[in-house]
Design brief:
Layout: H1 2-9, H2 14-32, H3 41-54, E1 59-63, H4 69-74, E2 80-85, H5 88-97, E3 104-108, H6 111-120, E4 127-130, H7 145-155, E5 163-166, H8 183-193, E6 197-202, E7 205-210
Parallel strand pairs: 1-2, 1-4, 2-3, 4-5
Antiparallel strand pairs: 5-7, 6-7
Helix pairs in contact: 1-2, 6-7
Bound molecules: S-adenosylmethionine (SAM).
Length: about 210
């Protein structure tokens, strides 16, 4: 459905409005189904904005721009927004969509390479929304090397106090190959390797904050 909407309205000013309208029925449908683990985008948006506000973070770094829904939701709530996208088509679309917003920086490339590059220009505690399909088809375990590399870069950065939100905790099933682990195992690993950090998993989102 999102691809269909993009196909017909992608280049038009209507597109963001149509996408935004869809978030409310999506949320209602989720409530009617008894709030299953996989949460609607509106809830993710509220979570990102709430963490930014609570921790007084003025910079948002997102991995995985896709159609720019989170960037759009974040407008007006952050002074700087970086969003990293691997797919050149989505990156070009986001460039066009946010061309009038100088605070938005769409960075094309793989998050594993681009997160350290973005971090190099950051000098204040920031909010990270990691959502670049780390698990996707690798939901049965997959290869989480890229995710671990990005977490390492963020949590060992010279600026302390970055807050990390990471989507799709449910996909950490602990099965499969390539260093598969459960969500609880990943949380424990982060807390073990970064003793100053606390990890809470709620509504399918890992929330990594300072103790
Ligand atoms: C779930 S969508 C992101 C949704 C978006 N964060 C939001 O909240 O609206 C995942 C996106 O990650 C992108 N992606 C996949 N691998 C990536 C990588 N290695 N680096 C950056 N982006 C990647 C995909 O192309 C896709 O656009």
């Amino acid at each position: 459905m999102p691809r269909l909407t993009y196909r017909f309205f992608g280049g038009t000013a209507l597109y963001p409005k149509i996408k935004a309208l869809g978030h409310y029925p999506d949320y209602l449908w989720w409530v009617l189904r008894g709030k299953p683990v996989r949460s609607p985008h509106l809830l993710k948006q509220k979570t990102v904005l709430a963490y930014g506000k609570k921790h007084q973070l003025r910079t948002l770094v997102e991995t995985g721009t896709y159609h720019g829904e989170m960037v759009h939701a974040a407008l007006g709530h952050f002074d700087r927004i970086y969003s990293i996208e691997l797919n050149p088509e989505w990156a070009a679309f986001a460039h066009r969509r946010f061309a009038r917003h100088p605070e938005v920086h769409i960075v094309e490339g793989s998050s594993q390479q681009k997160v350290p590059e973005v971090l190099a220009g950051i000098n204040e505690p920031s909010l990270f929304w990691l959502d670049a399909a780390y698990y996707g088809s690798g939901a049965q375990g997959g290869n989480i090397t890229r995710l671990l590399a990005e977490l390492q870069a963020i949590l060992s950065h010279h600026v302390r106090g970055h807050v990390v939100l990471m989507d799709d905790a449910r996909t950490f099933t602990g099965t499969g190959v390539d260093g598969a682990m459960t969500a609880a195992q990943l949380a424990a690993k982060i807390e073990r390797e970064f003793p100053g950090r606390k990890v809470v998993i709620e509504r399918d989102i890992f929330r990594i904050t300072r103790r």
